[in-house]
Amino acid sequence: MTFFSRAACAFLPLFLLAPVPALAQSPCTLQATPADTPQYAMPDDPWIYRGTDIPVDEKWLFGELPNGVRYAVRQNNVPPCQMSLRIAIDAGSLNEGDDERGFAHLVEHLTFRQSRDFGPGEAIPHFQRLGASLGSDTNAITSPTQTVYKLDLPNANRATLDESIGLFAGMVIAPTLSSDNLAADVPIVLSERREQAGPSRRIQDQTTQILYAGQRLAERLPIGTVDSLEGATQGSVRAFHDRWYRPENAVVVLVGDADEKVLAAMVEKHFADWQVDGSVTPAPDFGDPVAPAGADPANPVGEVSVIVEPGQPRGFTYAVLRPWVQIVDNLEYNRQNLLRSVAAAVVNRRLETQARSGGSYLYAQIGQDKISRSVDGTFVQFAPISEDWEAALAEVRGVIADALQQPPSQAEIDQAVAQFDVAFVDSVEQSRIQAGSALADQVVQAVDIREAIASPETFLDVFRSIAPRFTPEQVLEATRELFSGEVIRAAYLTPEPGEADVAQLRAALQTPVTASALARDDAEAIDFADLPAIGAPASPAVIEPLGVFDIERLTFPNGVRALIWDRNNEPGRVTVRVRFGAGWQGFAPDEGVYAQMGPLALVNSGVGPLDQNDLDRIAAGSKLGFEFSIDDGTFVFQGLTRQEDLENQLYLFAAKLAMPGWDAAPFERAKASAKIAYNSYARDPGGVLNRDLDWLLRDRDPRFATATPAQLDAATPDQFREVWSRLLSQGPVEVDVFGDIDRQATIDALSRTFGALDQREPLPASVTSRQMAFPEDTSEPVTLTFDGDTDQGAAVVAWETGAGSAGLPESRKLYLLSQIFSNRLIDGLRERAGAAYSPMVSSSWPLDVDSGGLTFALVQIDPSLLPAFYDEAAEIAADLAANGPSPDELALVQEPIRQYLNRAQTGHTFWLNQLEGAAFDANRVTNIRTIWSDYDEASVAEMQALAKKYFAGTQPLRVSVVPAEGAGTAAAGR
């Protein structure tokens, strides 16, 4: 069952938003007619379950055509009216010959360019006109073992579904693999390859080569080689396609808002006639991991490598590898998998405890995975804090050695088991609202790893059936199974030449290690009932309708406001979002380092009497979350929970405001992490932009500057506490609780938590007056440099736009304009010139502040082509301002957003995202009523007016990132 191997919905028409929307049922379900009679469905002999005792998930209908095509279909109306089609070809980069490296991925590109029913470049626009978005709805992916074509078709009726399946089938079965199309697509693939290049790619390549030495996986990544791609011919690519794109190698999955007979009949109609001459080519032998001759069976260390990549953070990976074998995916196999999962969770908790206590590594984790039908491995990864990698390795191995020698405590096991149980229960609760696209992907994944699928109920039943096996002795045995294997391989990444060599690495792995029990955690569970109260409970002074649906606004005597909405179409799912304070506005100019440290350290610094380990223990057996982010004008806590845990979730958030903990260890750990990462920014264009772009877009405001190592060294836990104590206590608080809630229980829980807070301090005028400034002088481009590959570069062009919630309608139309701009840029730089793989244009319109809005274009490109990018962007901006887009260009971006709105609105999170802040800001409510018309009724004239307003007569900010002159030159920056 795939879960163990890797780790009916209300429909709300947006056009009814006047004045208050009403709920209606999905109108799209396609009912079967007598003509919808699949001939090859096999309900009594589903192919994916053959040879297993796993209970059949009868919501699926499986079939097998005479030509060998296997299919799986399922009725699902989440989201309503959508159909999700997957065509999986059982061939990827491991199926390539030596002179075909990259062909599997190249064929994927060619499939979308031209085919049996589509002329050059017609496929993507066709599906966009039907509402499918490029990248999210219409996409493909090539892995070492599989190529999968994906289409999520919104608003599907019988005609569009039938036509789309036929067209998509024609793309996969009969692409036009011509010399002209190769000439167009090879440069695009090479651009994609160039964008992927750099330190991260080199590290991945070298690590893959050492971990899978002697196997095909070591040398065949999907992106391929330049020589093979440039040497591709019409004949050689056609030969690859004919060899592997055969009905016997294909699985078709179709999930959607239709009777399963309708879906099965359509699959049979469009795939039954697929025939390919010749016999099936067997897949090549992927090879097994093999220990070197004479290796110690008790410690079979094989290939090891030291990877030197200047500027990169240190990292160590070692793997205990076993051959991948085709298993019998039965219940007992999955029970053993679960035992090993619990064992790994116990070890990971100990490794994390050791790191928190001031260990010699920043993080460490273990995990079992089956990789590309090539190995079954247990992987150990950690990041040494300093150059003393041997101490970090010994510390990690010491924790593992203890786990291999002595059984864990029952308390440790119970904590891990409780977390798994919550996850399985949640899966059952969410199963009826699981998106059809996710269900389709699950079958494709199961086929790839050669396992069956199972319902969430089966997952939970199997897990609970082995409760008697979760004993210290059984978990010890499972831990030992994790670390038994044919060969051990390792790779150490270091920025410093000479810091380690292969002999030292091998010796360190072969040196006997002393077991360390310091990280064992036998502490008893903690009960929320034993924690101190937030304060005296206070009921809301006012409960009133918000004016949208039956959402209510609560106002408490202390000034806290809340929005609550009981929506039971997502059973067991509740989202809590707490907005407070001033966000980026709240920081003084010299406090940027503490802003950067906040998301890394604030949550983990504790709550009241609870430190990090206490928070883990108290969360065991509960569904709780604690995300933290900083927006322009507010701070945000968020957690996904359920009604039975809602009050505890609210308590954690309220306690963070009322009685924050100030454990210094998370701060020091976050500081070490930031220092380690800093030097890596200068090694590639993307890193430089991550480091400096926000700072440049904000007119070099020091709050947005990435902290340097010197600034991090000067930062102190006491100052961190001083800054964040102030920020946690200031400004209004809004609590949003949306989802499957008990209304009165939620109000009572809010009263005991946020209603019990003290009065908040108002935001000082010095805070609310701070602006997010755009650079005044943009006459000259800004040039940044990096130490890296000379054929890599990046550029940004940015225009200042608007901000503030009163401008929400304009922000929506500006989004449409940015997508038109993006399509033109893709067409100009990618499709016509092959200069860049993924240029994009984005629009940002802050709602909580009145400044800081941007539209910007970003591209990764060869430095020699940067002028072409600037010219292309300037030409597009000028033409949109002078002439506007064509009606077809506007329609191509409108239909996907219409369909997105229709899909997304079925979940409460969509409405939470639209209405957050509405407890204090009436504009959020007023402008929610025009959300559909702002997109649907936008005109070409409006697009031109916006382009003229923001693009014409202004000089955008231009930022170029280019290689530094001379090898080893330090990257220039601010």
TrEMBL record:
GO biological process: proteolysis
Annotated ranges, domain Peptidase M16 C-terminal: 233-419, 715-894
Domain Peptidase M16 N-terminal intervals: 75-219
InterPro entries: Metalloenz_LuxS/M16 (IPR011249), Pept_M16_N (IPR011765), Peptidase_M16 (IPR050626), Peptidase_M16_C (IPR007863)
Molecular function (Gene Ontology), one example: metal ion binding
Record Gene3D superfamilies: Metalloenzyme, LuxS/M16 peptidase-like
Stretch forming the signal peptide: 1-24
UniProt record similarity statement: Belongs to the peptidase M16 family.
The name this protein goes by in its record: Insulinase family protein
Organism phylogeny: Bacteria, Pseudomonadati, Pseudomonadota, Alphaproteobacteria, Sphingomonadales
